[in-house]
Input
Amino acid sequence: MNNYGDNIKITTFGESHGVFIGAVLDGFFSNKFIYEKNIQKELNLRKPFTSLFSTQRKELDKVKIITGVFNNKTTGAPILLIIKNNDKRSFDYKNISTNFRPGHSDYTYFKKYKFRDYRGGGRSSARETAARVASSSIFKKYIYNKGINIRSYIKKIGAIKIKFNSWKFIKNRFYINIIFLNDIKEYINYCKNICNSLSAEIITIINGIFPGIGEPIYDKLDSNIANYLISINAVKSIEIGLNLKKKNSFIIKDEIISNGFLSNNNGGVLGGISNGQPLIIKTLFKPTSSTSKKIKTINEKNLILFSKTYGRHDPCVGLRAIPVIESMLSTIIINFILKNNKYE
Output
């Protein structure tokens, strides 16, 4: 499957080292203003080579609207967005053209399709997420104008917790300059120098969700959240609400009084339906699998060998993941709004 969404369907296309990546949006409103510069602002938050702690692949991530918009307004027709790949170094991956990188999808893609694009992982590359971010930027303003605010911050990088007071709240978002946190800087540098990488935990808080969003049993709000977030490269788990491990029933119950709830242990969702409280979501990213350390693997002929990965990779993918998380959550929210006819 290369598409997601119900009322508004998004289809992404392209590979890490192909000519273009992009997306087609079908089902979005007509007569809505859209500007490339606004899409670009979102893309700039996830694009590579933004610091010494991201991949050094220098992509401009310049978006172009091809169809579905006339005089900066949507026509109601499908909207085609394309982003050109500029800084490809496919030769970096020649040595793993027949080897499977442990931790990557090389092995599973080959078993499924009997063929694979080894250049940067092809379709399985996190490069694909730029198309998701570009797509959701088109309807983020709509969601915000309905009083829904999505904010995220990195809670943990590897074993180091980031204090919440290190973050600044700017224009409805939390930002932090990782470079100026010396302990984080030294930690990431150390891991890079020993050919290692780091995990990340990201917390997202969504305010303004109307109670009643989501469907019972098979189309729950939280099951959709899990489905969409797990689809992001390197995401291994999510939690909604507070960590309920070793908690008893007296602690996790959210008591109710006439004007609302006394706590929010369940993260704004009960029975798969929003209860009007903020949604609280934790997303866990695994450490980047591509490092330059030699490790044991097999090749397409099932022979055991030692292989290393060249190329340019993030030492911690979580540093650029916030826009991707928020793009998927925005897509869930707008589709549920349209399905439930809320906020109209």
Notes: DSSP finds seven helices and 20 strands in the chain. The chain has a mean pLDDT of 85.
